[in-house]
Amino acid sequence: MYIVTGGAGFIGSAMLWKLNNAGVNDILVVDNLGRTEKWKNLVKRDFHGYLQRDEFMDLIERDALEKVSGPKLTAIIHLGACSSTTETDADFLMRNNLAYSQKLCAYALHKCRFINASSAATYGDGSLGFDDNPKKLKDLRPLNMYGYSKHLFDLWAARQGILDDIVSLKFFNVYGPNEEHKGEMRSMVHKAFQQIKASGKIRLFRSNSPAYPDGGQKRDFIYVKDCVDIIWGLLQKPKLNGIFNVGAGLARSWNDLAAAVFKAMGLPVNIEYVDMPAELAGKYQNYTEADSKNLRAAGLMEHMHSLEDGVTDYVRNYLAGPDPRL
Of the candidates 15, 67, 99, 201, which lies 20 to 30 Å from 304 by C-alpha distance? Predict the structure, then answer.
């Protein structure tokens, strides 16, 4: 039995797709569907059952999960969280992203594999680099509360001395199918496709730093299919634990991404630069690039999509196709 929290979300539902493709359907999905459209990400998936987020935690706290999952629990893949980088309710993030994850991790420690979703937002402005060495955790200074909530979990795991017993994955800029429900938090690939359809152009932020031209700010973009391939690879290596960056390992500019979307749509590049919103001032990462040496050494990054290949697959086979979901 595999448990996937956030299983109806972006990376979570892609993980279900990966598990199903590997012949696995003994899966318990945990999420908080509410009145969202996330349920559509589950329609084509094959899984054992579904539990609402709070009901699931109630079973964890009462040590009664086996009544639902059975005794043979292989792994908890914890991808459920509030992923909004602009969320301002710090207490909510402390409860939902930190305390919830701590309780779930403590439960899993002596029962099954635990894989947790952290974030590249933990690295802050990147001035200290993007090395996933846990010895550097205490030096990191996230720029937003979301990143801080994820960072606090990694710090907690380090203090507990359990980083060699769990996996915590620092996801960089993920894009791909099944992100329809994310609103403003969906990837720029999705936003760009919609903007081009509506107006024939893409809007990118002007640079707020003399070190970067407009649209020249760089991020590490990674296709969601590569993310779930990496998680699946980790599941096949039960002794491989620790903190790992999940990125392509190569910084590319927003201009590069825009050009890839236009090319995938068979259209000429047309970019309009706009001022950065005031609420992002001082919280915007101008550069991210995953130090991927540890996952590469483990042989888990041998078949990664380039930015152009990933964008082309996403645009032509999903966004422009009859079904935008995996």
Answer: 201
| DSSP code at position 261 | H
Residue at 196: amino acid letter: I
Report whether CATH 3.40.50.360 matches the domain 2-175+221-250+288-305: no
Reading the block at residue 132, the tokens are 């996933």
Note the pLDDT tens digit of each residue in 229-272: 999 999 999 999 999 999 999 999 999 999 999 999 999 999 99
Q: In the chain, where are the structural domains located?
A: 2-175+221-250+288-305
Question: What gap in Å lies between CA 104 and CA 76, rounded to an integer?
Answer: 9
Pick the catalytic residue from 111, 182, 263, 293: 182
208 pLDDT exceeds 80?
Answer: yes
Beta strand 75-78 pairing with 2-5 = parallel
- Rounded Cα distance between 154 and 158, Å, is 6
> Please, what is the average pLDDT of the chain?
95
Among the listed residues 100, 107, 146, 287, the single catalytic one is: 146
* Residue 146: active-site member: yes
